[in-house]
Amino acid sequence: MNIQDVILGFLYEEPMSGYDIKQMMENSVSYFFEASFGAIYPALRKMEKEGLVEKQVIQQEGKPNKNLFAITESGREQFQQYLDSPINPTITRSDILIRIFFGRFTTKEKIVEWLEEEREKNQAMYDNLTRIAESCSTDMEHYKRFTLEFGIRQAEMVMSMIDDELKNLNEQGE
Prior knowledge:
CATH class of the largest domain: Mainly Alpha
Number of helices: 7
Low-confidence stretches: none
Helix content: 55-70%
Structural class: mainly alpha
Shape: elongated
Number of strands: 2
Number of domains: 2
């Protein structure tokens, strides 16, 4: 999976601007795939050169022109090749887990601080995802709902583990 595969997937549904793609990512897949404008726009330019997308310039009064990108037949074929390819192993990279792994080199107070900060981040993700789930109650497509529920459950699991560890650390201090 790379940024091009994700962009092609969004464009498979409908033509979008780079801004629209970024917004869709933030409101749907950002908890497991994140991309900045600095990655999206160069990818779109490259994909246009490769004939995977076509750009339509829309004139706007009082604003810069809007570039709307649509997937081409070649883009659809490449996206299907991605969907048909073997799934890469999921690799979890986590700064908090690396720090805790080496926790014996710091203080318990520092570890508690890290855990509380990580819990806040996961609570914010959980709140955002549940807000999305509630606002899209019945009209969300099944497979999108599955990935949303995965994110909600993952945030719940992380918060539960952090709560358990904070309780354990607190009991050790007594």
